[in-house]
Amino acid sequence: MLKKLLSPLGRIFGLFAILLSLSISGNSLYAQTTNAEISGVILDVKGSPIPGATIKNQKTSKVAISDGNGRYKIAAAKGETLVVTFIGYAPKTVVLENQTQLNFSLAEESDKTLNEVVVVGYGTQKRSDVTGSVVSVPKARLSQLPVTNVLQSIEGAVAGVNVTTTSSVPGSQPNALIRGQNSITASSGPYVVVDGVPLSKTGGSLNDINPNDIASVEVLKDASATAIYGTNGSNGVILITTKRGTSGKPVIRYSGYAGIDNLAHILEPRSGAEYVQKYADFLKQTNQTQTKPVPNNGELAAYNAGTTTDWIAESTQQGKIQDHNLSISGGSPDVKYFISGDYLDQKGVIKGYQFNRVSLRSNLDINVTSFLTVGTSLFLTSNKFDGGRANLLLASAMSPYGQEYNPNGSYKIFPMEPELLYTNPLLGLNTTQISRTTNINGNGYAEIKFPGVLTGLKYRFNAGYTYFPERRGSYVGRLANDLNGTASSFNASTNSYTIENILTYSKDIEKHHFDFTALYSSQERKYNSTTAGAVGFINDELGLDNIGAGATQTSGSYRDRYGLNSQMGRLFYSYDSRYLLTLTARRDGSSVFGSNTTKYGVFPSAAIGWNITNESFMKSIKAINNLKLRLSYGKTGNEAVDVYKTITTEGSVRFPFNGISTIGVIPNNLGNSSLLWETTKTANIGLDFGILNNRISGTIEAYQNKTSGLLLKRSLPIITGYGNVLGNIGKTTNKGLELTLNTQNFTGKDFRWETMVVFATNKNKITDLYGDGKDDLGNTWFLGKPISVIYDYKMTGIWQTGEDASKQDPTAKPGSLKFADLNGDGKITGDGDRMILGQTAPKWTGGLTNTFHYKNVNLSIFIQTAQGMTKNNQDLTYGDETGRRNTPAEIGYWTPENQSQTRPALSYNNTLGYGYASDASYTRIKDVTLSYVFSQNLLDKLHLGSLTVYASGRNLHTFTNWVGWDPENNYSSRGSGDWTNNYPLTRTFVLGLNVSLR
Asked: TonB-dependent receptor plug domain spans which residues (predicted)?
């Protein structure tokens, strides 16, 4: 185990050393000086010690942290400057004389949060000046949670951002939705920007960004904040800023954790005895004569021997996860650097699933002259998902008396032979599966500050390039039930560049403050792919390594290009820090739109803010520390159209002509040369507040989005040769309320307790479809109703023995599902007896975080909830297979004896296709983290700058009425989806360590 761990770490440290030598070679470091030891205590104005305060020697950049009693020690000499800081308190600066003992008293700073700088897109602003809806993700969730994707840190922690984990496959990315769904079929995911350069639409994903490298995450939600991204802003924007170097001696940091994964909830199949009873009940209910105790002869041997197989246990394993991150940062006043390397390895809880990520990052900033600064942000991420996988769907269907192995030790293909419907769930482990991606990303900038009369004017040039190759390959042979052997290979690459010219001007004239930003940018993405496949191999020896050995060959290739040109202007004005105004307009031209259009659109927005607490009449109201009202209105776009969908194309097909295989063409896509983007108009009102020395602070916001020109497919008569065509038709509205509340419940000498509450409601509806005032029943789109609903029969129970079903459902028998006859015609049909049973999106979401501090011990408990959503339950829908497969013990069935009112008889065939709509609401103990920060006295002895150890648990328990694996999981039934994503929620426990060297 140690050898396996050290090997990847060795590679990381080796690459890390190379990057370090390249980045800091030639840079002069601070000379060592002989310093005296200064000690003392950090107190508040009441005389209580402040643990965790930072004491920094500005000359040497040495840093010390006060212990649980507020005490500190730091090396410093006469004439050097010590700066003491702590969140919520005004900093204090002292120039040393001949002291060796020095105490500090810090006063609370009520407007500390208001002076924080936040990223707003193409620049930064003080929080007190922000007029749009911009939310910063709490720093604690970015630095203190062991997550593989930053979206896992955001989940439940930001009001209005709904992050769902539909599958826990290692390396998979959660889905994120900001302020609900505006579009019906177009993409609704947020636009992601990293260090000012788009990550979205470059082929990569947030999986490529190491969470340890992230310094801050801002979420832009309203039109005032997102309109600067034009056609990409309608679904919100996530801005990520990575860590950068600071002046001072090098600081080396290591953070790592290791832990275990288990399935959070197991939907246990029936035991041997329960399986035998189910089969007997099935035969009885279907009026068949039972001749043997089990359905198949292949099960008899194990039944007679009294041996059973736990197929869930055979298909799963102890999951493991480890992550190791090493970084170094520092520099001189003119050259600053941050370099990091990270190795993540995850072994899934289902056999064969795994994820391996190696990432390297180098951020560099150089002050070339007093007016010119240049810098780079470089990263490389390699993701590896290789390996054949066990099939959890088949594992849950296997008979406990099925045979797992052949006499020679190989997997038996049909464990329940002669049953051929279900194969061994472990056959995937005998296949060759390759899935790898690499993200090579290089961004650079140059910034010029103009002097003299042009002071305040800056020009910045950004350039970013991304190369994203990906490779997938598969070989399935005899041991996996493919007697011919089938191989496939896929190789693709995405090349993207972004060029931005940004001009900013800042000016103060007495009480007037102006900030102007202008942008001209260009983006391009080129994608190409090749595929190869073959069937018919004489053996399985070479497989994927020699596709040319297959008897029947297939191949293909594809290429496309996407381009975007943009201009943007933004003006911010404030008067006396009381009255705020932001005006923004962006003009985008996208290559994906039709030739009959200009391809350009303008997206304006306006916002005003009023810092009420800065008014003279508020000075006497000491209890209110912050009160700001914000109003905004604007327009954004959604260009979610695939490349070349606005032009008519034809596809190739091979067909016989005169006995010869000939290539021909068939209709493929009917283009719409007048197609444009979806347009969303957003109104937002927000109130930021802080009272009682900011012990209670937060934000209340309400918004309404109106989207028009939806990108929908209009059905066409099949005689045209095309089934549909994209058009700008339909409208939706989307509104909601959001609340964020932070409270300091108790602030004592040794004990502190803080709480954060987030709450959000969202309601969308379709207001128009095709302009004819009619619903689209086939797609279950209804005017005046939510975009995504469950439309089905209304189940009222189970028909029991002796009940007369003839007047309501003549086809029903005892044990059949009982449905409401909504139109009263005496029969159950799809024409008039279906109704909207619920919506698939939650009606409201919330999160509750309680953080407790006792001296050096910290405990954080985060609870997440999503309420009011309905989903069809695949775990309850087994069609007519109940007589041939095992079923979960948790899911019962009707018999004349138990007279169930929720589950049908085994003989029921569900001919109406009822989806078993179920309440998918849940409340989850999402994560609990216990940490210990070591005292400075001990760190001095160990020659360390900081040391924190922690234990963390995620997905500890879920409170729900859902019957199945998990209400958040999208579970596919046989033949209805991708079984490889049938990977339920996992529970994780880790131990972690964060340490820095001084």
From this structure: 127-237
- Please state, in angstroms and rounded to a whole number, the distance separating the CA atoms of residues 875 and 267: 9
Hey, what are 742's tokens? 């932070």
Residues 49 and 168 in one domain: no
For residues 122 and 571, give the distance between their C-alpha atoms in angstroms, rounded to a whole number: 12
Asked if 121 and 81 sit in the same domain, the reply is no
Residue type, 3: K
53 and 85 part of one domain: yes
Number of folded domains in the chain? 2
Assess whether 130 and 217 both reside in one domain: yes
Q: Tell me, what CATH number does 170's domain have? A: 2.170.130.10
Within this chain, do residues 97 and 180 fall inside the same structural domain, yes or no? no
- Cβ–Cβ under 8 Å, residues 228 and 586: yes
Confidence at 562, pLDDT banded by 50, 70, 90: very high
Q: Are residues 174 and 230 in the same domain?
A: yes
C-alpha dihedral, 445 to 499 to 517 to 580, nearest 10° = -100
Q: How far is C-alpha 557 from the chain's CA centre? A: 31
Whole-number Å distance between alpha carbons of 560 and 786: 35
* Domain edge (last residue) among 61, 80, 106: 106
Rounded to 5 degrees, what angle do the CA atoms 860, 865, 867 make? Answer: 170
Which residues are within 8 A (CB) of 807 and not within 5 positions of it... i.e. 6 or more apart?
826
CA distance 390 to 387: 10
Q: Which of 217, 244, 271 is the last residue of a domain?
A: 244
Burial class (CB in 10 A: 0-12, 13-18, 19+), 942: exposed
CB 766 within 8 A of CB 781: yes
Q: Convert 752-772 to b/e letters by CB count within 10 Å (16 or more is b).
A: bbbebbbbbbbbbbbeebeee
pLDDT in tens, 309-328: 999 999 999 999 999 999 99
The answer as to whether 980 is a domain residue is no
Same-domain pairing of 199 and 225:
yes
CA distance 169 to 321: 13
- Across the chain, mean pLDDT equals 89
Q: What are the tens digits of pLDDT across the range 771-821?
A: 889 998 888 999 999 999 999 999 999 999 989 988 888 889 999 999 999
In a domain, 179, yes or no: yes
Query: What is the per-residue pLDDT for 473?
Result: 96
Beta-strand ranges (E) seen in 639-730 are 649-657, 660-669, 678-691, 696-708, 711-715, 724-728
pLDDT grade, residue 6 (50/70/90)?
Answer: very low
What is the span of the domain harbouring residue 48? 36-106
CA distance 734 to 721: 36
Say yes or no: 163 and 238 in one domain. yes
What tokens does 59 get? 């000359």
Give long-range contacts, CB 8 A cutoff, 24+ apart: 542-550.
543/432, 543/475, 543/477, 543/485, 543/487, 544/432, 544/434, 544/473, 544/474, 544/475, 544/487, 544/489, 547/487, 547/489, 550/485, 550/487
- What three-state secondary structure class fits 858? strand
Would residue 656 count as lying in a domain?
no
- One-letter amino acid at 327 equals S
pLDDT more than 70, % of the chain: 94
Instruction: Give per-residue pLDDT as tens, 368-400.
Output: 999 999 999 999 999 999 999 999 999 999 999
CB-based contacts of 863, cutoff 8 Å, min separation 6? 847, 848, 849, 923, 924, 925, 926
For residue 331, the Cα-to-chain-centroid distance in whole angstroms is 34
CATH number reported for the structural domain that contains residue 99 in this entry: 2.60.40.1120
Residue 196 lies in a domain: yes
